[in-house]
């Protein structure tokens, strides 16, 4: 007798009724086993419930019942193409029914005959384009029918039949991985019933319960992996239990030039807890542009210094490294902490001396680019590693820096507000801290949406700001003209503004085709106010601080996602003067218009990121599909975020309990983790 869990691993040909030819087509679809066939879920459902016409939505599929009110008229417009039209009385509405290429229906339709029709509803013309027509009222009509993706000789109807055969013959072999306590706590149906109902729902309510059950299981299994990985990393990576005087740390915090916000205080508490624990910190710190992440980093580095260790901060570009080094020096040097800068520009004798002092422990904090991970960079006692805009560094680069010390604590910082649902999915094995409050006194950036025909006024506004001693960014989506997209490009805009201002202002140009050195040079000139107006593609997105810049103009703003627009807007508003963001766009789509409206209504990056996620979906949020986002069969992290939260809490509780690792009722879940390789450390970077 086969083990129950092995039965479903048999080839699909074990199902009576599936031959070699069908199996070959299924193989092309990635379906080789009975289990894979049962997990080939419908991607949508046809709804056959009778719909009251007043509730019918324009351009959607509906099923309606009425009486034939006029003689059907049949017209041919080629030998095989025809159109049958007749009027139907549905309740008190007179509806036009149109049937294409079904001439045989003419003989079936008699005046005053009851008909049931399913088709696309045109609310404006009061017309239904009929796909299915049944003469008479349908008895025991299915409310709902599954639609599958198919290939070759396997039709949707054929796929329904194959899945029905598999369920009939092997449905009893479906094992439920969830312990009864979870099933009872959330009133979940069994897995067997859920899989049957997802394929053959008798009602919408049954389908809803089946989906809820399967989505919860999918999220729970994923979160178990994340939480087990977190636990494994914590326990297999004994960190440094930093020991320092809380009084001294508080004295430093009190000495800062401004009080911490409540959010900063909360995050500092979380980081201090990590630093003093015997486990290695693995924390993601999210905070909007200007929310005060650098100050939090300074407090963490000061605490590490009090404990007798060195700290390192790695950032993506030289100019950003210089700005961070300057900020940290201002905060830490009065406390006797030696802060140094290490980038590829530090060469020869200076570099050699710095590396010797670093290895001897004389340098307390080093800020740098990927120059920090060169082989000849050695620390005397590295206790904490902070990376800013961590998604700009590869896993390998971050690992090399970590290995410069003995299990140093790790803090990742990002100014890209990631929606909570994405953070706990993409970064589920990390602890996540959020600074969701702005320091007092920061002026809100005023944001306006204008059409292209108002550009003249925008240029005049830029001139007014530059004449007042300020600077402006002008951002474009493309570098050079594209035949496919009618969008403004940086080179054209630079030429146009140069012509428009006739030498009154110095206008710079920056784009992705410039080398790193050239980009750095342009940014330095802009920072020093040698350039008044900087025309650029999105390469200015992250980090650089030019407090004198007060205007951000974004061409074809509807081409950008909300998160990116918000990042760009955050380049201004860094000084004392009022700043402005002007979105130039003529969006054609409703989504484009909605983006522009949302941008003018809120400056909160987290609100925007949630909206962006709703509008674009998780795969596009990070700009690429390779962002490490898991693909779920049924779960949708945007719409099912409550289930995701609950699954995460349950997974964390289970993994931290003794019972989970020993009791029989959790055996299936333990096996699942074993097979995933996490418990053996296979999935660790």
TrEMBL record:
<comment type="similarity">
    <text>Belongs to the helicase family. RecG subfamily.</text>
</comment>
<keyword id="KW-0234">DNA repair</keyword>
<keyword id="KW-0238">DNA-binding</keyword>
<comment type="function">
    <text>Plays a critical role in recombination and DNA repair. Helps process Holliday junction intermediates to mature products by catalyzing branch migration. Has replication fork regression activity, unwinds stalled or blocked replication forks to make a HJ that can be resolved. Has a DNA unwinding activity characteristic of a DNA helicase with 3'-5' polarity.</text>
</comment>
<dbReference type="InterPro" id="IPR001650">
    <property type="entry name" value="Helicase_C-like"/>
</dbReference>
<dbReference type="InterPro" id="IPR047112">
    <property type="entry name" value="RecG/Mfd"/>
</dbReference>
<dbReference type="InterPro" id="IPR014001">
    <property type="entry name" value="Helicase_ATP-bd"/>
</dbReference>
<dbReference type="Pfam" id="PF17191">
    <property type="entry name" value="RecG_wedge"/>
</dbReference>
<dbReference type="InterPro" id="IPR033454">
    <property type="entry name" value="RecG_wedge"/>
</dbReference>
<keyword id="KW-0547">Nucleotide-binding</keyword>
<keyword id="KW-0347">Helicase</keyword>
<feature type="domain" description="Helicase C-terminal">
    <location>
        <begin position="454"/>
        <end position="614"/>
    </location>
</feature>
<keyword id="KW-0233">DNA recombination</keyword>
<keyword id="KW-0227">DNA damage</keyword>
<dbReference type="GO" id="GO:0005524">
    <property type="term" value="F:ATP binding"/>
</dbReference>
<dbReference type="InterPro" id="IPR004609">
    <property type="entry name" value="ATP-dep_DNA_helicase_RecG"/>
</dbReference>
<dbReference type="Pfam" id="PF19833">
    <property type="entry name" value="RecG_dom3_C"/>
</dbReference>
<keyword id="KW-0378">Hydrolase</keyword>
<dbReference type="InterPro" id="IPR027417">
    <property type="entry name" value="P-loop_NTPase"/>
</dbReference>
<dbReference type="GO" id="GO:0006281">
    <property type="term" value="P:DNA repair"/>
</dbReference>
<dbReference type="GO" id="GO:0006310">
    <property type="term" value="P:DNA recombination"/>
</dbReference>
<dbReference type="InterPro" id="IPR045562">
    <property type="entry name" value="RecG_dom3_C"/>
</dbReference>
<keyword id="KW-0413">Isomerase</keyword>
<protein>
    <recommendedName>
        <fullName>ATP-dependent DNA helicase RecG</fullName>
        <ecNumber>5.6.2.4</ecNumber>
    </recommendedName>
</protein>
<dbReference type="GO" id="GO:0003677">
    <property type="term" value="F:DNA binding"/>
</dbReference>
<dbReference type="Pfam" id="PF00271">
    <property type="entry name" value="Helicase_C"/>
</dbReference>
<dbReference type="GO" id="GO:0043138">
    <property type="term" value="F:3'-5' DNA helicase activity"/>
</dbReference>
<dbReference type="GO" id="GO:0016887">
    <property type="term" value="F:ATP hydrolysis activity"/>
</dbReference>
<dbReference type="Pfam" id="PF00270">
    <property type="entry name" value="DEAD"/>
</dbReference>
<dbReference type="InterPro" id="IPR012340">
    <property type="entry name" value="NA-bd_OB-fold"/>
</dbReference>
<keyword id="KW-0067">ATP-binding</keyword>
<feature type="domain" description="Helicase ATP-binding">
    <location>
        <begin position="274"/>
        <end position="435"/>
    </location>
</feature>
<dbReference type="InterPro" id="IPR011545">
    <property type="entry name" value="DEAD/DEAH_box_helicase_dom"/>
</dbReference>
């Amino acid at each position: 007798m086969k083990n129950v869990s092995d039965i479903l691993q048999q080839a699909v040909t074990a199902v009576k009724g599936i031959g070699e030819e069908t199996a070959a087509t299924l193989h092309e679809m990635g379906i080789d086993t009975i289990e894979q066939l049962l997990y080939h879920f419908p991607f949508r459902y046809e709804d056959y419930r009778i719909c009251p016409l007043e509730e019918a939505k324009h351009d959607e599929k509906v099923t309606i019942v009425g009486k034939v009110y006029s003689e059907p008229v049949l017209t041919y417009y080629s030998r095989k193409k025809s159109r049958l039209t007749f009027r139907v009385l549905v309740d008190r509405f007179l509806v036009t029914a149109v049937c294409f290429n079904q001439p045989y229906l003419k003989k079936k339709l008699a005046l005053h005959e009851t008909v049931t029709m399913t088709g696309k509803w045109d609310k404006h013309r009061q017309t239904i384009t009929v796909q299915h027509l049944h003469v008479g009222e349908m008895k025991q009509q299915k409310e709902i029918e599954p639609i599958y993706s198919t290939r070759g000789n396997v039709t949707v109807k054929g796929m329904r039949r194959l899945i029905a055969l598999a369920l009939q013959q092997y449905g009893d072999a479906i094992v439920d991985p969830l312990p009864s306590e979870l099933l009872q706590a959330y009133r979940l149906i069994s897995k067997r019933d859920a899989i049957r109902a997802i394929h053959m729902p008798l009602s919408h309510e049954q389908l809803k319960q089946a989906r809820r059950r399967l989505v919860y299981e999918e999220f729970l299994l994923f979160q178990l992996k994340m939480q087990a990985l977190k636990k494994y990393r914590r326990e297999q990576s004994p960190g440094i239990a930093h020991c320092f005087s809380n009084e001294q740390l508080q004295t430093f915090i009190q000495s800062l030039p401004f009080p911490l916000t409540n959010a900063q205080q909360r995050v500092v508490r979380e980081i201090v807890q990590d630093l003093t624990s015997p486990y290695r910190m693995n924390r993601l710190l999210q905070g909007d542009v200007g929310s005060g992440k650098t100050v939090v980093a300074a407090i963490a580095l000061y605490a590490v210094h009090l404990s007798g260790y060195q700290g390192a901060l790695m950032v993506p570009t030289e100019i950003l490294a210089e700005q961070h080094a300057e900020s940290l020096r201002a905060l830490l040097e009065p406390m006797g902490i030696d802060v140094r800068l290490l980038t590829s520009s530090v060469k020869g004798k200076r570099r050699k001396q710095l590396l010797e002092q670093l290895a001897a422990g004389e340098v307390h904090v080093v800020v740098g680019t990927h120059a920090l991970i060169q082989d000849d960079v050695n620390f005397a006692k590295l206790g904490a590693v902070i990376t800013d805009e961590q998604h700009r560094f590869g896993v390998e680069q971050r690992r090399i820096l970590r290995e410069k010390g003995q299990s140093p604590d790790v803090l990742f910082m990002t100014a890209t507000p990631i929606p909570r649902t994405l953070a706990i999915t993409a970064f589920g094995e990390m602890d996540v801290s959020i600074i969701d409050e702005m320091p007092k006194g920061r002026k809100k950036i005023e944001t306006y949406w204008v059409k292209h025909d108002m550009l003249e006024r925008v240029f005049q506004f830029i001139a007014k700001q530059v004449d007042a001693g300020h600077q402006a960014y002008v951002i474009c989506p493309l570098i050079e003209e594209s035949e496919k997209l009618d969008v403004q490009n940086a080179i054209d805009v630079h030429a146009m503004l140069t012509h428009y201002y006739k030498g009154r202002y110095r206008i710079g140009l920056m784009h992705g085709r410039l080398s790193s050195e050239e980009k750095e040079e342009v940014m330095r000139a802009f920072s020093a106010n040698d350039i008044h107006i900087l025309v650029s593609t999105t390469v200015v997105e992250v980090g650089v601080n030019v407090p004198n810049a007060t205007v951000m103009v974004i061409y074809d703003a509807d081409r950008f996602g909300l998160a990116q627009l918000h990042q760009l807007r955050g380049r201004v508003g860094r000084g004392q003067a009022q700043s402005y963001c002007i979105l130039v766009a003529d969006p054609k789509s409703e989504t484009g218009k909605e983006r522009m409206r949302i941008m003018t209504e809120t400056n909160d990056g987290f609100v925007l990121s949630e909206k962006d996620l709703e509008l674009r979906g998780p795969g596009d949020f990070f700009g690429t599909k390779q962002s490490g986002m898991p693909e779920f069969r049924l779960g949708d992290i945007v719409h099912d975020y409550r289930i995701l939260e609950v699954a995460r809490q349950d997974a964390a509780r289970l993994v931290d309990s003794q019972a989970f690792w020993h009791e029989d009722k959790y055996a299936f879940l333990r096996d699942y983790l074993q097979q995933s390789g996490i418990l053996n450390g296979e999935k660790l970077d």
